[in-house]
Amino acid sequence: MKNMILHTWGIHSLRLPSIFRIVAVVILGSILLPASPTLAHHGWDGFDTNNLVYVAGTVSSDGTWGNPHSHFDITVDSNLPASTPDLEIPEQLQDPEDSTRVKAAHAYNGSHNEIEVIIAPPTWSGMWGLDRALEVGERFQGVGYINREDNGLFRPVVFWYGDDSTPVNQVLDNTLPVRAPLPGSSTDSGDTPIMGKDVLELSENEKSGDWVVWAVFGIIALAIGVGGFFYLRRSIRGK
Length: 239
Known about the structure:
CATH architecture of the largest domain: Beta Barrel
Strand content: 15-25%
Structural class: alpha+beta
Number of domains: 2
Strand order of the largest sheet: 1-2-4-6-5
Largest sheet: 5 strands, mixed, barrel
């Protein structure tokens, strides 16, 4: 497989030193690898945005605190209230069209005792005072959506952490990703779904991260090219 890739890209014929050939294979492999399952969960489209749910429990794993998003597991409370308790709503979601829906979210009724939570990158969460990873055993409550393909994956539009139930906004602008009809209301009631923006998709932190990745690829590729040139030049002179 390695020789086929090298031959396709014209690298094998250069007879580069082993180190250059190895680096070349790593770069090409990284580019050709398909997106990981975690990245496939990226964006609101993969979640059931017509149904806001409330979950509560305790953090049960260290998870990952970083880009393009953070995630961790929680053990779900065995007895959840029927709907969202009386919790502080972040400023960006205090519009009645949004806050009413957050407060009316039904309790999670899935089959998982433990679910994975995916949240915005640290830069965004830090704007709301959360500048660290949540600790195992820490209290977590959230209102958000269940993934359409993996009902053990939860993505909040807002969550509350710690004994003080500190709120952390997870959406851009001043609206939910989708203002779906309220539970029990008719689709003819005038509740037209309104699409919002995605903090995970549009975060500047993630965009800059993409540029860093491609810059590193560019530097390594340039190093391979320059190294190969001088190696060939030295080999020709030695003949």
